[in-house]
C-alpha cells in the first residue's frame, strides 16, 4: 500500500526539516491562499544550505556580509523548492508559518493566518527553472486535495510596496494554464482582488 500524500499537514513528496518558527492558526481558520515567494542566500547564490539554515535558526550570521542585514531574523515558510525541483517542508500546513508579514488579500488581513507559504529558490524578478515550476504545480495540486484553496498569489500581491517577489520573472499565465483552475484566483489574472 502506498504512503498517503498528506500526514498531519506534511507532504510525503517533500524532505521534512522542522522549523521552530511557527505557531497555531487562529481557531476556525482554513487554508484558502497559497503565497509564492522567492529567496536565495546570499542573494543570487543557489544550491547551498543557507535557506534551510535560516528557516531552522541555524544560519551562521558571520559567514557572509549580507547576513548581517538579516541577523536575528526568525522566519519560515511551509515549503522551499530548490532550483533542481526538490522540495523541503519546514512547517505543517495545519500550522501558521512566518512568511508573509504585514499582508492582506481580498480584504483579509494577516495572510499568515490562512495561507501556505511556498519559497522558490531564485531572485526577485529573475526567472525560475522549468523543473521548479513543475514541482510547484504538483505541490499546488496536492495542496488543493487537503485545503480549500481559492487563490494563488505572490508576496508582491499581499504586501505591495513592501515586497516585490517573486516578481516579473514568474510566469503566472503558465501557472494558470497548468493548473486549469477557473475557480481559483491567480494573482496576475485578478489584480482587482488585491
From TrEMBL:
Pfam families: Amidase_2. Its EC number is 3.5.1.28. Coiled coil: none annotated. Its main location: cytoplasm. Residues 19-167 form the N-acetylmuramoyl-L-alanine amidase domain. Signal peptide: none annotated. Keywords: Cell wall biogenesis/degradation, Cytoplasm, Hydrolase, Metal-binding, Zinc. GO terms for molecular function: N-acetylmuramoyl-L-alanine amidase activity. It catalyses: Hydrolyzes the link between N-acetylmuramoyl residues and L-amino acid residues in certain cell-wall glycopeptides. The keyword Metal-binding applies. CDD domains: PGRP. This is 1,6-anhydro-N-acetylmuramyl-L-alanine amidase AmpD. It comes from Ideonella paludis. The gene is ampD.
